[in-house]
Design goal:
The protein is mainly β. The chain contains one helix and 19 strands. It has a single domain, classed as Single-stranded right-handed beta-helix, Pectin lyase-like (Pectate Lyase C-like), CATH 2.160.20.10. β16 and β17 form a beta hairpin. The longest helix has 20 residues. It catalyses: Eliminative cleavage of (1->4)-alpha-D-galacturonan to give oligosaccharides with 4-deoxy-alpha-D-galact-4-enuronosyl groups at their non-reducing ends.
């Protein structure tokens, strides 16, 4: 209930501000980062999931859900705005609100200069096999009540030059999928703006790893945002059990959570 009310409040703020500032204006919600967000060159409404093979260059148009995709809630099982086939690239896209379940990568994929103005269920979900390579370069995301990046398949996700603000978790390795993998995430040159809960949640019992470098945290003087949280994942659908939490002051464990205090800068 609270999450849905929060989403509707954000959507109302964006809509009201857009009327006064014009369609191309970018509205910064609470916790907006210091990153420079692009202005939309137009708006495209999607009533059904758009399948991408090869490369889709959106020309910085704003894509929003409509009809069956017209929800900005945290409800599970929503359809995505985009599905990326193995090897596909999505670039120069602004995903507005409602965003449904964002982007699904069905195999290896590249997401470049994609901006989520108000994350729906998740910004992107990665579903490839154990050898899949996913790359997110540039872009940013705001307003994720829960997760930004959800890793359900296997393989390695590398995120670089990305900005995130007002979020729950930047990355979560699925804690209770029926098929589990050893997953890896690499975060490089990430700008994090409070409020937020944690950057990464991984399953230490399945051998997941998270590697951090060049992390800048803005507006978190009390250092509440956790850098890396480990869980005991399962295949039964049960809620995973938290194992350990690592902050910038402690550094990681060097095995699953790979960072030192030198990798985290506060502003």
């Amino acid at each position: 209930m609270f999450n849905n009310l929060r989403k509707r409040w954000r959507a109302g703020v964006v809509a009201i501000a857009a009327l006064g500032l014009g369609l191309g204006a970018v509205v910064h919600t609470q916790g907006a980062s210091a990153a420079t967000w692009p202005s939309a060159t137009g708006t495209v409404k999607l009533t059904a999931t758009k399948a991408v093979s090869g490369t889709l260059d959106g020309g910085l148009k704003r894509y929003v859900g409509s009809g069956a995709l017209g929800t900005g809630s945290q409800d599970e099982g929503q359809d995505p705005l985009f599905t990326l086939a193995d090897g596909a690239t999505l670039k120069n896209v602004i995903i507005g609100s409602p965003a449904a379940d964002g982007v699904h990568c069905l195999g290896s994929c590249t997401i470049s200069n994609v901006w989520w103005e108000n994350v729906g269920e998740d910004a992107a979900t990665f579903k490839g096999g154990s050898s899949a390579k996913y790359t997110v370069t540039g872009g940013g995301a705001k307003g994720a009540d829960d997760k930004v990046f959800q890793h359900n398949g296997g393989g390695t996700l590398t995120v670089s030059g990305f900005a995130v603000s007002d979020f729950g978790k930047l990355y979560r390795s699925c804690g209770n999928c029926k098929t589990q993998y050893k997953r890896a995430v690499v975060l490089k040159n990430i700008e994090v703006t409070a409020p937020g809960s944690s950057l990464v949640g991984i399953n230490s019992n399945f051998g997941d790893t998270a590697t951090f470098s060049g992390i800048t945290v803005i507006g978190d003087s009390s250092k509440k945002i956790s850098i890396c949280v480990t869980y005991k994942g399962n295949k039964t659908g049960a809620e995973p059990t938290k194992v350990a939490t690592y902050k910038a002051s402690t550094g990681g464990d060097g095995t699953n959570c790979k960072f030192t205090s030198a990798n985290i800068t506060y502003k």
